[in-house]
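Glycerol-3-phosphate dehydrogenase [NAD(P)+]
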Amino acid sequence: MTDIFSKPIAVLGAGSFGTALAILLARNGNQTILWGRDPEQVAEIDKNRLNLKYLPDAPLPDNLQVTADFEAAVIGARDILISTPSHAFSDTLRELKKLDDGERRIIWACKGLEPGTSEFLDTRVEEVFGKDRPKAVLSGPTFAKELAIGSPTAITMAVDDDKLASELGQRLMSDSFRVYMSNDLKGVQFGGAFKNIVAIGAGIADGLGFGSNARTALITRGLAEMMRMGEKIGGSRETFTGMAGLGDLVLTCTDDQSRNRRFGLALGRGASAEQAAREIGQVVEGMRNTKEVKRLADKEQVDMPVCQAIYDILYNQQDPKVAARALLTRAMKVEGD
Ligand SMILES: NC(=O)C1=CN([C@@H]2O[C@H](COP(=O)(O)OP(=O)(O)OC[C@H]3O[C@@H](n4cnc5c(N)ncnc54)[C@H](OP(=O)(O)O)[C@@H]3O)[C@@H](O)[C@H]2O)C=CC1
Ligand SMILES: O=C(CO)COP(=O)(O)O
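Structure:
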């Protein structure tokens, strides 16, 4: 077996998920270094051995290093795991490219598309590092807090290189963390991005007081919509019924730990998008994702009524009740279509 554990892995982004992943990796015995962009915040994290701002319930293992020095984090690392918001992904890649040794493998856990172009993040990696650079994306039902405190969790890892698949699997797997392997990078990324939009919808429905029937209908039709678009961009059906599809849809549409769901709840109760985003105070990927997936739907001519309804609420200032009525009163259709 390769001794991958002695080869450092750098986690970029010291928010809730980056911190949780770094804790998991360090706990599993990997040489792990967590990079955050704010030197003061990083110093606080190191002093307290706790990320009070983003993950206050999970102390850092002694062997987890933290730094605000990007070069120091990256330079000795074999693997790079990016866990910034998606809108910071391209900038992070550009910074990485300046220090490139031609060998580092790129992994990410961001759940979104490139803002302004709807490009998938694996395409961005190929544009910056070339097609042959091994890469992987992690996605699935994984609230940071539960992962960090060691509650049983499962995820999908989509990867385009056998050696990386085996070594990253070894790095991540533990008796409380299970990894399912896939080679469907596009499908896994689309599932992760799109579930955020449906979670906003489920939050809106609950904020309006609609109840369990409406929430469940949204999850079910959200899955149909995820599959319709997901297959069009080359994803496979198995991906969308797996962790990165149905798994994450159910998680984030039904549990108030989800920031996207809470954002929707606030909208349904009458807040504006700006007020709701301020209230959450963390990344709400579904806001940008809605614009990007709508752009993709228009380009590919795929019918995405749930995405359209959220788009109208967020970007056309439509009243959520009016958007819900527009969804419900569409012409009758065959369920499988
Ligand atoms: N939290 C979760 O449960 C999960 C999150 N994810 C995904 O992980 C990604 C990160 O989310 P999460 O950690 O939750 O977000 P948080 O809102 O908890 O934290 C965001 C972090 O990113 C940092 N950041 C923001 N902009 C930049 C930038 N331009 N360059 C570098 N760092 C930046 C923030 O720094 P600062 O404090 O200085 O603003 C902060 O540390 C998202 O794509 C999310 O969908 C995936 C699975 C689960
Ligand atoms: O993706 C997540 C869990 O899998 C986290 O969801 P939110 O970003 O909605 O909090």
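The pocket of NDP (ligand 1) is lined by residues 13-18, 36-38, 54, 83-86, 88, 91, 109-112, 142-144, 282-283, 285 (CB under 6 Å).
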